[in-house]
Automatic annotation (TrEMBL):
CDD domains attached to this UniProt entry: AdoMet_MTases (cd02440)
Domain of life per record: Bacteria
Keyword Ribosomal protein carried by entry: no
The Methyltransferase domain, residue ranges: 54-149
GO annotation, biological process: methylation
Signal peptide: none
Source organism of the structure: Candidatus Curtissbacteria bacterium GW2011_GWC2_38_9
GO molecular function: methyltransferase activity
PANTHER family: PUTATIVE (AFU_ORTHOLOGUE AFUA_2G14390)-RELATED, TRANS-ACONITATE 2-METHYLTRANSFERASE-RELATED
Keywords: Methyltransferase, Transferase
Keyword Transferase: yes
Name this polypeptide is given: Methyltransferase type 11
Length: 260
């Protein structure tokens, strides 16, 4: 089996256009029940008026944005993937909601004091291997918010992931639609980077290979990044059921407020 040796710093440009939904389609993480659970959580902890303006970035296929728009919020969705944006637009039309969608790199958004809430969900932070790029993203989210606007950041608990890394299988096979998926873990503990090499094998189709990367952070590091970006943490959860965040939590879902 061919293994990717070189880290692809622009992995997200290819991955989300050609592989993302195919790989995760059969996991149930995009189920209606899960989408509703996550959206209810978001609306509950944002605690802003139903007419408020929310930026969903990256919005993916619109699974959160559409449900929030149906509740009365004014939604803007930003993503870099043409494939996912097209799916999001189709979903919005199907559900008869108006959402403003834009194709944009998170590092290049230009909104200013426009939104009451910003949401960054489903481990969509840490896409860039350069810490300065990840910090820049948080600063741009802050600039996008109105004074005292609220921000939800949902990401992996880096310390817990790295602690469990040696116990995790290095290769996993599963079936997704009509294809078989092989995930090979090559995470680099010393650099705090999660690295997955992915191979899709389908009958009568060429083998496809992709890579996904994520820079991992712990709560102390994220707290400092948020402070540098003009945010104050209000609460930290361990999951979408509002459980308290613990060192052993798989996720950390952070509610912050813009203070400057």
């Amino acid at each position: 089996m061919l293994i990717h040796r070189q880290l692809n710093k622009s992995w997200f440009k290819d991955f989300f256009n050609n592989y993302y939904h195919s790989i995760y389609a059969d996991f149930g993480i995009f189920s209606d029940a899960q989408n509703k659970k996550e959206t209810s959580f978001v609306a509950s902890i944002l605690d802003i008026p139903k007419s408020a303006k929310i930026l969903d970035i990256p919005c993916g296929q619109g699974r959160h944005a559409v449900l929030l728009a149906k509740q009365g919020y004014s939604l803007t969705g930003v993503d870099l993937s043409d494939t996912l944006l097209e799916a999001a637009k189709k979903l919005a039309i199907k559900e008869k909601v108006k959402i403003n969608f834009f194709k944009k790199d998170m590092r290049k958004i230009t909104f200013f004091n426009e939104f009451d809430g910003v949401i960054n969900l489903f481990s969509s932070f840490g896409y860039f291997l350069n810490d300065e790029d990840n910090l820049k993203v948080l600063k741009l989210f802050n600039i996008s918010l109105k004074p005292k606007g609220r921000f939800i950041l949902d990401l992996l608990n880096g310390d817990q992931f790295l602690k469990q890394l040696d116990k995790l299988p290095k290769k996993i096979w599963w079936k997704a639609g009509g294809a078989y998926v092989l995930l090979e873990d090559r995470s680099e503990k010393d650099k705090k980077i999660m690295v997955n090499d992915i191979t899709l094998i389908s009958s009568n189709k060429p083998i496809k290979r992709a890579q996904s990367l994520m820079k991992l952070y712990n709560l102390i590091e994220i707290r400092e990044y948020l402070k540098k970006s003009g945010f104050k943490i209000l609460k930290v959860f361990g999951d979408y059921d509002k459980t308290k965040f613990l060192d052993s939590s798989h996720r950390m879902i952070i509610l912050s407020e813009k203070i400057k």
